[in-house]
């Protein structure tokens, strides 16, 4: 556009010069017809150039609108895809939790349950990576910043990778900071970034290999270093390792799995926190090292470790629970899990029947799906909150949609909590336990 403006300015100068020549010719007693023809030719050229400029501007606007439309459609598609994939994963996850409670049924049952649980976790992680890549690309990732300790971030990341390490019979060595320090950031997102690195290290390290985690402080920065004894990174791939969908050579078996998204998401999250990330490797079969560097919080006190969250109290008595879910498999498995934990559960297959039950009965907790036929979860909770009851139930929304705006809309409608499918059994029972203790 700058070049076009410069060209237009030159045309203006040429037209003014042509006009000056016509005026001088007339004053000198000449007809000036030749100069006039030159002027008309220049005006015609200028008109054509202006028309081309207008057409180019319109075309650029159309291309921009098309790109924005496609980006919006892509985000909507990914959100719908995640929702449709999470719905069948939810009952599978619930069923795996039920199998865990039936250890005496068959000696192979714990092993089968472990396989199902790990694969469900892996599928859920792939879905989250896809959505995170889309959010980061479109600039829709928001951070809930607070002062958090580095060791707390490490502990949360280790929780995520522990089962993967154990499954592959690998050795995990972790050295937290002796004198913990604080950083400014989003605990969940930073733990996600660091767990991505750890999962990646385990994935590309053979069974029986070693993954080492070090935390070091240098000046006003803390360094999170992960070393592995895995397959290493080829020199040609190393400069591109953090690019979206970039992967090294794979065998047809694709035993390492993945979509080539995790490292790109990690880099973006680290940079959003004012940090940086780097990868090092001496080459094939020489292992890898990833280093995340984060700035220490200003005026952060030293030697102050983050407090562990208080353990959830067990319910003093069973809770009366209304479960509103239209998927029969999800509803049946979740009902069984809740009843095995000592709660009384009433099930409604749609929103309207759920509201009807809430009007005629008293419940301590409502577990409600958002995507319900007839009346969706938002409508359900609005009507429940309008009931003139002495006791308002603790309401938990459950949905396959995981965008931040989905959670905000649910909380705004009247839910106390918002959980994304597949929901961890411990999370649901923990929330109900808190409610039971308060009741």
From TrEMBL:
This is histidine kinase. The keyword Membrane does not apply. It catalyses: ATP + protein L-histidine = ADP + protein N-phospho-L-histidine. InterPro entries: CheY-like_superfamily, HATPase_C_sf, HATPase_dom, His_kinase_dom, HisK_dim/P_dom, HisK_dim/P_sf, Sig_transdc_His_kin-like_C, Sig_transdc_resp-reg_receiver. It is an enzyme of class 2 (transferase). Residues 80-298 form the Histidine kinase domain. The modification 4-aspartylphosphate is found at residue 369. The keyword Phosphoprotein applies. Transmembrane segments: none annotated. Keywords: ATP-binding, Nucleotide-binding, Phosphoprotein. GO terms for molecular function: ATP binding. Residues 320-436 form the Response regulatory domain. Pfam families: HATPase_c, HisKA, Response_reg. Its EC number is 2.7.13.3. It comes from the Bacteria. The lineage of its organism: Bacteria, Pseudomonadati, Pseudomonadota, Betaproteobacteria, Burkholderiales.
